[in-house]
Amino acid sequence: MAQSVWGYDSDNGPDHWHENYPMAKGDKQSPIEINSKDVRHDNSLGPWHASYDPGAAKTILNNGRTCRVVFDDMFDRSVLRGGPLTGAYRLRQLHLHWGSSDDHGSEHVIDGVKYAAELHMVHWNPKHGNFAGALKQPDGVAVVGIFLKVGKTPKPEMKRILEEIDNIKTKGKEAPFQHFDPSILFPKSRDYWTYHGSFTTPPCEECITWILLREPIEVSSDQMAKLRTLSKTGENEPVKPLVDNWRPLQPVKGRIVRASFK
Length: 262
Ligand SMILES: [Zn+2]
What we know:
The protein contains 4 helices and 15 strands. The protein has helices spanning 17-20, 131-134, 159-162, 221-227, and strands at 33-34, 40-41, 48-51, 57-62, 67-71, 79-82, 89-98, 109-110, 117-124, 141-150, 174-176, 192-197, 208-213, 217-219, 258-259. The longest helix is centred in the C-terminal third of the chain and has 7 residues, at 221-227. Bound molecules: zinc ion. Zinc ion (ZN) binds at residues 95, 97, 120, 200. Residues 4-261 form the Alpha-carbonic anhydrase domain. Residues 1-28 are annotated as: Disordered.
């Protein structure tokens, strides 16, 4: 597998990642399955708070592996605090993982349930100087994970991202994406599970405090279909739908998942 071409296909997919990225076989990999019976309620886990500046949103892009919204993180503009975290973490980007049909696509699995998609909001700890430095530290990154469930009351707030899809159809396309407050994507409940894990994409650094929200947000089947119109190939290549960009479950290896709720 050439260094630059990891992906989700049989020849460059998750089973091959460790060949170039040995960390992918580490002891704290993500995603994992959350089993309610093994979760430990921890009443020391306080609420988390996001304070996001809509002006920090910059661009939306298709990198051939996901659809990503990028934020200005040059200073403490859009930050996440509280919950299991110490200090303020800066929002850097959000992206999604989804399936080829509505019955799968999330990375984390809850008591055997897979959702249609999973949204990741990636924040880093500025005490480590820069994003690259944060990737090397166990408390370097905090990701809020939000599940997308196909239902009858679609989240209108997903509209903003979905209406840009046509502008970033192929790999390498990027479009301006300004004045966007990502906190509109949060569900009503702030209940969460938390554990220590990794990025679910190479190099799979084990620097992440996961904050997985219990309540999914609803999207429509049409909204999911729109996401699947993205192509993982470039403008002048035959279209290949960008779907099933999720990593399978990784071994828990004795890690404890804590819950903020009973
Ligand atoms: Zn992700």
